[in-house]
Amino acid sequence: MRKILLLNGLVYLQGKLIRTDLLIAGSSIVSQGEYPDLPGEAETIDCTGLCIFPGGIDPHVHMHLPGPSGFSSDDFETGSRAAIAGGTTSFIDFVTPCRGQSLIEALHKRRIEATNSLCDVKFHVSPVEWTAKTGEEIIRCIREEGIASFKVYMAYRSSIGLRDEDIFKVMKTAGRHGGLVAIHCEADEEIENLKNGYLSEGMTSPKYHPLSRPNAVEAEAVKRALNLAEKAGCPLYIVHVSTRESLDYIEKAQSQGLPVYAETCPQYLLLDNSMYDHPFDRASAYVMSPPLRKNEDREALWQAIRDGVIHTVGTDHCPFSLEQKRRGIHDFTKIPNGAGGIEHRLSLLYTHGIWGKRISLGRFIEVSSENPAKIFGWYPQKGMIKEGADADLVIWDPDANQIISSKTHHQNCDLNIYEGLEVKGLPVHTMMKGSSLFLQ
Ligand code: URP
Ligand code: ZN
Fold this sequence. Notes:
By secondary structure, this protein is of the alpha/beta class. It has one domain: TIM Barrel (Alpha-Beta Barrel), CATH 3.20.20.140. It contains 14 helices and 16 strands. Strands 1, 2, 3, 4, 5, 14, 15 and 16 form an 8-stranded mixed sheet that branches. A 5-stranded parallel sheet has the order 9-10-11-12-13. Strands 6-7-8 form a 3-stranded parallel sheet. The longest helix has 18 residues, at about 215-230. The protein is globular, with a radius of gyration of 21 Å. The two termini are about 25 Å apart. Bound molecules: N-(aminocarbonyl)-beta-alanine and zinc ion (ZN). Zinc ion (ZN) binds near residues 60, 62 and 316.
């Protein structure tokens, strides 16, 4: 069996950085300690001056997502290559059946689509309607298919979104059988009214996207989702939280002891709604739901990470090319929603979190790897450096710099919402189950 010795790295163990060696055999971490006498036949990698973190786990991505403007531009192969280049070794994508299609059939098809992924992949399964079979299929997903989470959408009611009474049924079933519900919180009716109002006045540019999805649209939906989950007795995971007002509701529910987890994304921590003032080709890159917010929201999100109110930072990776975005050149509601970011999640979080002195190294590891592993059933096989865990590791140079650009990134897209931003802290080597998949 192939053995690799990572020598003299700074490894985050039991709450602190420790200079140590790590021995890997095959796909697992075997032991940690000092190895003055190298075990025979082990290859060595000198990690002096470098950190070693558990491989990143992105709990929210959309590879090859179908939509009216075509598929999101990264498939499982290109998206996972970009993930690995950024130090992320596992991610959770979605199974979104067509209405009328069985959840199980859609799950099996999606698993086949994901076979060319370089990363380990799990899925959130999305019931997009409630039929006589949905409850039984959710139970089968949990018992027979190892699915732990079900994602429902309060937005997008005309296609994949559910009414509250159906969300409640999903929550009741999932909660009773040990599952969790992940939820996209935006109040659909309110968005429809606002969107139609702007369009009818001839207001068609990207800047009306955020105006048709103000903070209250998210916060009111969060409040409703929390009530539904409490009544249904179901653990809740709120995806891409972007507003200060939502955090107030989430914090209150958590303080009452309810099992509520929250996720945010780098775009909501780092970018603001002034991006929509640019001309169409630039502004449309930032059309995503929820939209970018104000500085006070960003500050509140960082505070919530520090306070442990937000548990994970995912990306909602869903890139579209400029050509795809131009579908909405005369109507902002036709711009495909979403942007890429899986490659930059760790370096952005490290730059602005650690170098920016906003979060501790422990929090960085928790939100980027450990907590997603714990919440979605990967822990302790992933999400920590420990004997017996998968050797999914990122060897990290805390001082390496890069200027992010679509010209040099690995994501399959000619747009990058972080274009021109400088990061400090980058992977130099990413290992997936002991195999070196990225080497700087
Ligand atoms: O704008 C976004 N978030 N696009 C991806 C699909 C979704 O809503 O999660
Ligand atoms: Zn999403």
